[in-house]
Amino acid sequence: MAKKNAFYAQSGGVTATLNTTACAVIETARRHKSKIGKVYAGRDGIIGALTEDLIDTSKESAATIRALRYTPGGAFGSCRYKLKGLEENRAQYERLIEVFKAHDIGYFFYNGGNDSADTSYKVSQIAQKLGYPLICIGIPKTVDNDLALTDCCPGFGSVAKYVATSIREAGYDVASMARTSTRVFILEVMGRHAGWITAACGLAAEQEGDAPHLLLFPEIPFDQDRFLAKVGEIVKQHGYCAIGVSEGLRRPDGKFVSESGLRDAFGHAQLGGVAPLIAQLVRDQLKLKYHWAVADYLQRSARHIASKTDALQSYAVGKAAVELAVKGRSGVMPIIVRKSSKPYQWTIGVAELKDIANAEKIMPRDYITEDGFHITAKCRQYLEPLVRGEDYPPYRNGLPAYVKLKNLAVPKKLNTEFKI
Amino acid sequence: MAKKNAFYAQSGGVTATLNTTACAVIETARRHKSKIGKVYAGRDGIIGALTEDLIDTSKESAATIRALRYTPGGAFGSCRYKLKGLEENRAQYERLIEVFKAHDIGYFFYNGGNDSADTSYKVSQIAQKLGYPLICIGIPKTVDNDLALTDCCPGFGSVAKYVATSIREAGYDVASMARTSTRVFILEVMGRHAGWITAACGLAAEQEGDAPHLLLFPEIPFDQDRFLAKVGEIVKQHGYCAIGVSEGLRRPDGKFVSESGLRDAFGHAQLGGVAPLIAQLVRDQLKLKYHWAVADYLQRSARHIASKTDALQSYAVGKAAVELAVKGRSGVMPIIVRKSSKPYQWTIGVAELKDIANAEKIMPRDYITEDGFHITAKCRQYLEPLVRGEDYPPYRNGLPAYVKLKNLAVPKKLNTEFKI
Known about the structure:
Two copies of one chain form a homodimer.
Chain A: E1 4-10, H1 18-30, E2 36-42, H2 46-50, E3 54-56, H3 62-68, H4 90-102, E4 105-112, H5 114-129, E5 135-140, H6 156-177, E6 184-189, H7 196-201, E7 214-216, H8 224-238, E8 241-246, H9 274-286, E9 290-294, H10 297-301, H11 308-326, E10 332-340, E11 345-352, H12 353-356, H13 377-383, E12 395-396, E13 399-400
Parallel strand pairs in A: 1-2, 1-4, 4-5, 6-8, 6-9, 7-8
Antiparallel strand pairs in A: 2-3, 10-11, 12-13
Helix pairs in contact in A: 1-3, 1-11, 4-5
């Protein structure tokens, strides 16, 4: 293929290491100048492509791009915009190709989760049908760790490290004062459908009695009586109880616990916040003093405590994506392959987008203890390598020195507007 | 004074660097073997002294005591037990002296906030009255940063670094997706009576447009209409708005905002959680998508991102306390004296406990901007040196390697029980 420009877009919820992948894509593309011209990024993800709102990354210095490696969030903007089925909304796909053609784009890199793998796959199909030469590469990313085929997802290891560290630290706090103060501490974490992040909290409990003592997974229907009995037991035995709970905890009837409780003064249901509900239950039924925390975006943006393993893998998938592209591979995604757990060894493999699109990796039941309240040794063995190593960002004036890009627009070439 | 044992107790809410001070006290005492015998710690603070439940720190190795330097919480246990007035409850004070006498304790180190300074002062008075030779030293500690005379309080700088880092990181996250998703992010932080921690969030906003855009201080009565108008303006200008709010935010009538809103299905008021209330207001009145986080204990136990300045100062006050004691000084507290802000220079000074006891350092009004929604340059100049430098703990298996002590009890010598 003659030298062509590349298009890169970030998709879905951002992570602590999404920009690490962006850095890798841009740095690697700059090393393949004979095949790749400029890297254009979509402003706010795929919306940028549809609206022809492209960012010229060539306007950013090497030092700025390098600084992206340590900056959380999505530097070009991301969105949760899902392209519909090919037949349902062919105009959208054709518009993408039209924009790519106008800007001489021959490479499409889409960095996201399940939906994005699906979109990349469909774009590769439509390009073929329309006879437009386009190399389509998906790049994995999601804190939810639910992508199929890859052993783990870039972004997950850092959230895992953050939640495990946080609940360990809070555990030390609570243990110090439990005799006369707080007995039960609850940390709410993300993961609406899969308990990977909740499971990661469990890494902090290395020895008998360590926090967290109890985990509430979205996979295990919430049994109030068994939960309360267990909390009572733990407090009796250890003096306090630290709990990690998924925002996606469900009642036996399948409804989210977070949607079923608190109402404001006007009777409106409170959205989000399962931790305060669990806390109230503990107070009302067990008469124990509690505290609760909701980590929310803090957990997925905590670049200051990113996992080194995660940072290396996030970089590696970005680099591999570009290397696959210049070799002419299309319709694929670089994935992380675990070669062994002890010692931990991994490498980059390649999977077909069609095999990843819309599949979901769920937590195996044998990663959760039989009683449903903690992780098993097998789960620990899977998770532990993913949080290993620190990858500290640079600091300035005592705070992490993150970068903001200029994000200069590529002049438009089409005169058409496109409503999204 | 002949060689005597020392008693050390931790008091009140724990911090990320309270054990750093404990480490300094024990390490320094071990270097003064001619004057100080063993260091006994109170199990769960002053309660340990009253109930003759003393911990023998000499049973811990030098390596373990060193590891305390990097461990959050209160390693010997803490409590919020406040001794009453001397005349009101003379029996308690006499009991303390009785326990000290039984264990040959000639040094009393009390590590806490305002109440603790008051208690230390009263203990020194009663010892004098009873003719018992006791050197009483207060050691400052509080995340609230509200102790008089000392320029800042050990423990505060690390919370400050944590909240500023967290809201900066969450700001990068929200900025990435604001166009199609969350527009308003709210982080709730501690500080029920003083806005020092809320102010520290403001450090993250170094340039126009940086998060946080808006701070809600406990010192400034919450004006709902002005707040909503301001949020609307900020979202219009920057696309999103990141807010730091104190748990102690009050309505114009003086009531806590957190006590005035949510009720559970049974009509019980929800305790704590001002962030979700502010979030609902934003949703109901401005129709903007929001997210909120409550940092709770995470902020004061986050040893993984402790401030180096804070860690050094926390160690320095513990060391100075012992050095003052062996020189025969009593009724005093080592404090942090700022010699200059640019460059930041500090030293350890000495203050009289009677001047610190029950005084309170409030946020100067000129540390808050005139509109009440942010910090001034003067505030930034005060705060910025306190978060400087990193002081990373060691890691094991990807998580901070914190230590747990054996906490072996000193055999009791009194046959009396004491009800607390």
